[in-house]
Design brief:
Chain A: Its main location: membrane. The structure holds two protein chains of two kinds. Chain A is mostly helical. Chain A contains twelve helices and two strands, in the order αααββααααααααα. Chain A is globular, with a radius of gyration of 23 Å.
Chain lengths: 313, 335
């Protein structure tokens, strides 16, 4: 504090540069928001807000557009990818921090980080050429046979397994986001003070009890942060799912049906959108995604702050 | 001071070079479909004349926008623009090369060119009204083939594309039900089937899924050894997709220079015409005479010297008569 009063020129220019860097982010965000709104103004004017987000129409020929199928696809693939990825990621983190012998920790850690470094288009092509046939020939018929006739859950497994569907897309998404959840959970688990864990062991707790009653409660905020980060990634992921989701603008109840997310629609249709209203509707979709991401982040922040408060008391 | 001079000199040199390039280069953007042939022509043209042609394959929609905003020397589109729109945006339009779209099937025991379909069958299959391969309407066309009693899996493009535009224009032209229910465009609201991204997506799903039918560019069908079908054309003949039948379509279709060649090359009247072909178009800004001249000189060169290259890449060069029509169109527009 005292140093800033002296106005050292190096200090001043340093703080100026950091301030510029930080404010540029805000400028970018406002700029992006401005472009999205101005480009989509045509569609906003024609379809309004409520009608656009509640309409299931998506017909470029008849120039009738609605976002509900895309929003639905985005939400469903994100939820299912989280359902698949969270247990796996937390399992990885527990194994690496608590169970695995030391010589295995390095290789597994590196492997997880490598998974995060693979470009999403690679996941997309791999999904199209490798995963999708496996899903349609083996995994999906198997799931259909087991769950297809179970009441309630059975609805999720109707239709012909084609491998181009919500399930395949969710599996790819979950593989993509596992590294984020896993490495952040691992780091938070590592932050559990050894003293606390050792005390638990000392009073006779088993490994399972230590993980369940000491490590996870201690680091749940960090884990939650990791989940939120992966949630953001899953909502916005494009290329990995563009190839295996089929871009089908319908609301379906089965996991074995094709669907469309907002990003998939944008990636598939942006380049060949040849009418003004079509292009404007795509920008409008992007705006909807922007708002959705904002709401998700805000909600996550809200829970984090509440949890932090409860925790610090 | 010396270093400063050196620096300034280098800078001047660099700028003079880039300037030199700018004078000798043409920029185009648009459709992805003709990208391989345009860049092959550009490569050869550069060797002969030293003029560089940069073509960015950003999609037809992008190409139309960029030439409308005058950010490129020429735009390219798989879809012809209507004369009214060309007038409004002050654009010129002419065809450059022809391609075809081919329905491909994956049916056990059925080989290349064995299955015959007419326009009604293709339309009803894509509408989801014909659901089984042994439907009487398909059987009647193919008495010699034993068709399985399996569900037809319809494969279409999931992304917006010129290929879809050509295919849906074909369906709209021959099938009133399609026209009223679905219509034609770069992406449509498909009544049936699954979507694959790109030609590679559709060919992959068709190859992998038994009892499926899809549609891909001719080049893709050839390279991926997909099983093509014979189609009945408006003249009443069953034709197979080949350079000859595409060329016949381009030669017999009524391209009218007075309407800026605005024509979908589908359901051409020729005896041997393949019914699902499409020309891909070049768009020029009317007022930019100087750069337009350079573009037309390039395409004139390509019309003269590029036919073999185009065929190697499985594109169909324009028939000679159509090339002359295009040259006449340039002349009437002062190029």
């Amino acid at each position: 504090m005292a140093r800033t009063a002296k106005k050292n020129p190096v200090d001043m220019s340093f703080s100026f540069i950091t301030a510029v860097a930080s404010f540029s982010v805000i400028v970018f965000i406002i700029g992006i928001l401005y472009v999205l709104i101005s480009e989509s103004s045509l569609a906003i004017g024609k379809f309004g807000v409520i009608k656009f987000v509640t309409s299931t129409d998506w017909d470029p020929v008849k120039e009738s557009f609605g976002a509900l199928t895309n929003i639905y696809g985005t939400v469903v693939t994100t939820i299912f990818s989280l359902i698949i990825s969270i247990p796996v990621a937390i399992g990885i983190a527990i194994f690496v921090t608590e169970i695995s012998p030391n010589f295995l920790k390095g290789p597994i850690g590196v492997a997880i980080e490598l998974l995060a470094a693979i470009p999403s288009i690679i996941y997309g092509m791999w999904g199209l050429f490798t995963l999708s046939p496996i899903m349609s020939n083996h995994v999906e018929p198997f799931l259909k046979k087991i769950f297809g006739s179970v009441p309630l859950i059975g609805i999720l497994f109707q239709g012909t397994p084609m491998g181009i569907d919500i399930l395949t897309a969710s599996v790819i998404l979950s593989i993509m986001i596992i590294p984020f959840t896993a490495s952040i959970s691992r780091d938070s688990f590592d932050l559990t003070p050894a003293v606390v864990k050792e005390s638990a062991y000392a009073i006779g707790a088993t490994k399972w009890e230590v993980v369940k009653n000491v490590v996870i409660p201690y680091s749940k905020l960090g884990v939650f942060g990791g989940v939120v980060l992966s949630l953001g990634r899953a909502i916005g992921e494009t290329m990995a799912v563009a190839f295996v989701l089929g871009n089908n603008h319908r609301i379906t109840t089965s996991l074995l049906d094709a669907a469309a997310t907002i990003t998939v629609t944008l990636a598939n249709e942006f380049a060949e959108a040849d009418k003004d209203i079509y292009l404007s509707a795509l920008f409008y979709l992007a705006l909807v995604l922007f708002v959705m991401s904002f709401i998700t982040l805000a909600m996550a922040k809200f829970f984090l702050i509440r949890a932090e408060r409860k925790y610090s008391r | 001071m010396k270093t400063f001079l050196k620096f300034a000199l280098t800078l001047a040199l660099v700028f003079s070079f880039t300037h030199g390039y700018a004078a000798e280069s043409l920029n185009g953007a648009g459709a992805t479909f003709p990208y391989p042939v345009y860049s092959a022509w550009a490569f050869d043209y550069n060797k002969v004349t030293g003029i560089r042609l940069n073509y960015q394959s950003i999609g037809s929609g992008g190409g139309i926008r960029q030439i409308t905003e005058r950010t490129v020397d020429f735009g390219a589109s798989d879809a012809p623009l209507r004369p009214e729109q060309l007038n409004k945006d002050r654009l010129l339009q002419f065809p450059a090369v022809v391609g075809g779209v081919v329905p491909v099937v994956n049916l056990p025991g059925v080989k290349d060119g064995q299955l015959k379909l007419d326009s009604d069958a293709v339309c009803k299959i894509y509408l989801g009204e014909i659901r089984k391969w042994d439907d009487p309407r398909i059987k009647a066309l193919n008495p010699q083939i034993k068709l399985p009693n399996s569900d037809i899996t319809v494969v279409h493009r999931s992304d917006g594309s010129g290929t879809t535009a050509i295919f849906t224009n074909y369906l709209s032209g021959i099938c009133p039900a399609w026209k009223s229910k679905v219509g034609a465009g770069t992406s449509v609201n498909w009544p049936a089937g699954i979507g694959g991204k790109g030609n590679e997506g559709v060919s992959n799903y068709t190859k992998r899924t038994a009892a499926s039918i899809g549609y891909v560019e001719f080049a893709y069908a050839q390279q991926n050894k997909l099983v093509y079908v014979l189609l009945k054309n408006p003249a009443g003949n069953f034709v197979e997709p080949s350079f000859k039948t595409f060329e016949d379509a381009a030669a017999t279709a009524n391209f009218n220079p007075k309407e800026d060649f605005n024509l979908w090359l589908v359901n051409a009247p020729g005896k041997n015409s393949w019914p699902i072909a499409g020309a891909t178009f070049i768009l020029l800004a009317k007022e930019k005479t100087a750069s337009n001249k350079k573009v037309t000189v390039f395409f004139d060169w390509a019309f003269k010297n590029g036919d073999r290259k185009a065929q190697e890449l499985i594109y169909v060069p324009l028939p000679a008569a159509l090339k002359d029509k295009v040259r006449g169109y340039w002349k009437t527009n002062g190029l």
